Structures are given as structure tokens and as C-alpha cells.
Amino acid sequence: NYTLEDIMTQAYPVMPVLAVERVEDAIPLAQALKAGGLNVLEVTLRTANAMAVIEAMKTVAGVIVGAGTVTRVEQLHELVRIGADFAISPGATPALLAEGKRVELPFLPAIATVSEMMQGLELGYEHFKFFPAEAAGGTAALKSFAGPFPKVRFCPTGGISVKNFKDYLALDNVTCVGGSWLVPSDALAEQDWDRIEALARQACFLV
Ligand code: 3PG
């Protein structure tokens, strides 16, 4: 079992944000990303088979597999049942924040403003996704958050790419970044595992 701290530091430099339609792609995709150096994977619950994809990826040794796009409390319970390693939401509702502290699963809520962050802090959260990172102020916003809240740690996602991810990782309050750029939808559609492995390796190499 991992803590949020483990997950966000082991995800260094980057957590691929995945939308996987076919369960048959789960294992080769996880193997390709791991071979390229990325071992913390966020499988968004945007596809019909996402839960089955997480279960399949969990059979690959050495990868930490969680869910993204968690928007309902019932999804947290289902993720505990299937043995997912963590859950990430694009936002933070009172219900998710409360249940996220009760379930046996590290839960990373997202914030875009200081007031949202303060609601999470009141409930004991010190790690947040910053979403949508580029649209909500990017690295300038994160630098501003560090003044009043130096202990809070972020995983920014949303609009991050090979061009700007290092700017985020250079900040003291950023422990990892997430993004979909590592697994382009055409590469996944074509089952181009070599290209996906090469993109993962490039991200690791650039750091
Ligand atoms: C997420 O769910 O974290 C975002 O959709 C990822 O954003 P990106 O597609 O801009 O990388």
C-alpha cells in the first residue's frame, strides 16, 4: 500500500494520464510505459472499460496504477474493491473530500483556487492536483500558492506537454506533473508500443 507522498514522488517526472478503450491494450501499454521509465499510471474513468483496464494493469509487476476523473463517491468504493492504488479527481466536492479521508485508498483531489485548497486543508489534505494547470494560471499561480501555503504539494495537470513540464517540475511545491501527451491517441489506436515507450523514455531523459 502506498501513501499519496509515495505516489507523487515515485511518479517523478511525470504521470501519464490515460484513456484506454480496449482491455487488451492494458498490459502492453503498462509494460511499454514502465520500460520507458514511467511506473505510476493514471487511468481515467472516461472509458467504459476503465475499471477492467486498471485491474489488468495491476498484474504488471512494478507499476502503480490508479484512477483519474473520479467524480463520484461510489467510484472510490469500486476502486477499493478492485485494488487500485490511488484515485484522482479533477475537482473537490464536499462528499468526495469527506469520503476520500475514510476509504482505504490515497485520494488526490484537485483545486484551481486558494479557497478550494483551504477547504481541502481544513479536512487534512496537503496534496492536491492543480487542474486545469495552464488555464488556471500555470507556474505563476503555483509560485503564488507557495507564499501562504509553503507545505502544500501539487501535481499539476491540464495543458502540460513536453514543452513546459520541466518549468513545473522546477517549482519546490510540485512533486510530479500529469499529462496525456505521453500516450497520443493515435499511438494507442495503432498499438504502437515502441513509440509510447520512446515518448516515456524521452520525458525521463529530459529531466
Ligand atoms: C487530466 O485529466 O488530468 C487532464 O485531462 C490531463 O490534461 P491534458 O490532456 O491537457 O494533459
From TrEMBL:
GO molecular function, one term: 2-dehydro-3-deoxy-phosphogluconate aldolase activity
Keyword Lyase assigned: yes
Keywords assigned: Carbohydrate metabolism, Lyase, Schiff base
EC numbers, comma separated: 4.1.2.14
Pathway: Carbohydrate acid metabolism; 2-dehydro-3-deoxy-D-gluconate degradation; D-glyceraldehyde 3-phosphate and pyruvate from 2-dehydro-3-deoxy-D-gluconate: step 2/2
Enzyme class, spelled out: lyase
Keyword Lyase: yes
Reaction(s) this enzyme catalyzes, per UniProt: 2-dehydro-3-deoxy-6-phospho-D-gluconate = D-glyceraldehyde 3-phosphate + pyruvate
InterPro entries assigned: Aldlse_KDPG_KHG, Aldolase_TIM, KDPG/KHG_AS_1, KDPG/KHG_AS_2
Superkingdom of origin organism: Bacteria
CDD domains: KDPG_aldolase (cd00452)
Known partners and oligomeric status: Homotrimer.
Similarity field: Belongs to the KHG/KDPG aldolase family.
Protein name: 2-dehydro-3-deoxy-phosphogluconate aldolase
Source organism (scientific name): Reinekea forsetii
